[in-house]
């Protein structure tokens, strides 16, 4: 996903509510009863006699012994990913000492790595606002497509750079609660309106002429590269391009798998990436209709060649099976995260230390992660099948300024 799938036009409605101030009606009570008062916010009190829903802390400190499988994990495999994040975090006060100590550590000594984390970090159990400690864990990967710099059959499906008329609107200065949101739009006269949807872009309404980076030979594969947010394109001359996320049209992501299930085209268990690809191969005349159900559209940029994984939102290369995407509203980018889930389509435990190095518009919520499996078709098989439940613990340096409401048990 690689810094992809950002919050879409729905964020505009949220921003409008924030900027507009209080509603003219009092909110419903926590148990769904109508509040008897008719005063506007903020004068409307909590409804008399109705108990408030208890607040649940997002983060609660625990012991390393509470992390299932902590003593069995091969921390040597996670060390390069953590060190990469430390290179970006070491200038921040909260991380400076921990990252400085990591520099002097032998990365091939698993016992020393475990002792380092136990001496310098506190694990925090992560929970959603409703108290749930279980959440969704999906998977993603770096696809490899076939393509050409020129449009010639069979390479007829373009991957575009961002168009010049795409506006990026940051409301953080006037609405601090929107600091993690970036609205996308375009000018229509003096009005800012939503940017063109996927269907409208495909219909030629957006000025993307001249923005073609490369052409690929498969529309459904191009679509999934947008979902993943990055990939590689092997050209006929043997050259390989690395393509990364550049921007998005601002529309919210809509699942084409859900659309197929709702119409009886696929059973729920078949709505994996592989199942959708198989359906598209069997129904080539309906691929445009299928893809148009997701109005979100991703634009790319060409990245310089590099031996590691693609860069994540933190700006460091992702590490296969040790990097995850998280929601940065709840977990800091670069932080180690202990994940307890299961392997794709199985009940076999998958318990290991990961590093939060990426984000994504579909990754929303505290207990929510996207597991990076690596590059190529084998990684794609695992990513496409992964839709598991899991628990998460974020490891924060001693003295990290955890908000008071998040530090309560």
- What count of structural domains? 1
Low-confidence stretches: 2-47
Helix proportion range: 10-25%
Strand content: 25-35%
Biggest sheet strand order reads 3-16-13-15-14-17
CATH topology, which one? Barwin-like endoglucanases
CATH architecture: Beta Barrel
Shape: globular
Please write the string of helix (H) and strand (E) elements. Answer: HEHHHEEEEEEEHEHEEHHHEEEEEHE
CATH superfamily: RlpA-like domain
Largest sheet: 6 strands, mixed, barrel
Indicate the radius of gyration in whole angstroms: 23 Å
- Report the end-to-end length measured between terminal Cα atoms: 33 Å
Average of the residue pLDDT scores: 86
Query: How many H/I helical runs?
Result: 10
Q: What's the total number of strands?
A: 17
Describe this structure in words.
The chain is an alpha+beta fold and 409 residues long. The protein has a single domain, classed as RlpA-like domain (Barwin-like endoglucanases). Helices cover 23% and strands 25% of the residues. The strands form three sheets. A six-stranded mixed barrel has the order 3-16-13-15-14-17. A hairpin with a 6-residue loop joins strand 14 (336-342) and strand 15 (349-358). Helix 2 packs across helix 3. The longest helix is centred in the N-terminal third of the chain and has 15 residues, at 75-89. The protein is globular. Mean pLDDT is 86; it is low at 2-47.
């Amino acid at each position: 996903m690689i810094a992809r799938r950002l919050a879409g036009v729905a964020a505009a409605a949220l921003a409008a509510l924030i900027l507009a101030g209080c509603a003219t009606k009092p909110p419903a009570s926590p148990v769904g009863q109508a509040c008897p008062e008719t005063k506007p916010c903020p004068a409307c009190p909590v409804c008399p006699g109705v108990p408030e829903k208890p607040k649940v802390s997002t983060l609660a400190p625990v012991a390393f012994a509470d992390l299932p499988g902590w003593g069995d994990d091969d921390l040597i495999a996670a060390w390069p990913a953590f060190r990469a994040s430390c290179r970006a975090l070491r200038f921040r006060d909260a991380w400076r000492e921990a990252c400085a100590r990591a520099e002097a550590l032998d990365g091939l000594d698993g016992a020393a790595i475990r002792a380092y984390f136990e001496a310098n970090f506190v694990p925090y159990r992560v929970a959603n606002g409703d108290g749930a400690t279980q959440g969704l864990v999906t998977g993603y990967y770096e696809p490899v497509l076939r393509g050409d710099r020129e449009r010639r059959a069979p390479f007829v499906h373009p991957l575009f750079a961002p168009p010049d008329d795409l506006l990026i609107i940051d409301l953080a200065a006037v609405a601090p609660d929107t600091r993690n949101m970036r609205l996308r739009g375009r000018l229509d006269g003096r009005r800012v309106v939503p940017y063109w949807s996927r269907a409208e872009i495909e219909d030629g309404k957006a000025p993307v002429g001249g923005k073609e980076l490369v052409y690929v030979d498969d529309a459904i594969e191009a679509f999934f590269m947008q979902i993943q947010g990055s990939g590689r394109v092997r050209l006929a001359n043997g050259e390989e391009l690395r393509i990364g996320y550049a921007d998005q049209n601002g529309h919210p992501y809509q699942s084409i798998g859900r659309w197929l299930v709702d119409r009886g085209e696929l059973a729920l268990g078949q709505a994996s990436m592989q199942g959708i690809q198989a359906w598209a191969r069997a129904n080539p005349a309906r691929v445009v209709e299928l893809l148009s159900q997701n109005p979100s559209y991703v634009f790319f940029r060409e990245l310089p060649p590099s031996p590691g994984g693609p860069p994540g939102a933190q700006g460091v290369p992702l590490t296969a099976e040790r990097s995850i995407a998280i929601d940065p509203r709840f977990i800091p980018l670069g932080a180690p995260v202990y994940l307890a889930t299961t392997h794709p389509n199985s009940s076999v435990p998958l318990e290991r230390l990961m590093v939060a190095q990426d984000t994504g518009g579909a990754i929303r919520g505290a207990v929510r992660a996207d597991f990076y499996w690596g590059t190529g078709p084998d990684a794609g098989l695992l990513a496409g099948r992964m839709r598991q439940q899991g628990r998460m613990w974020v490891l924060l340096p001693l003295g990290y300024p955890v908000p008071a409401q998040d530090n309560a048990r």
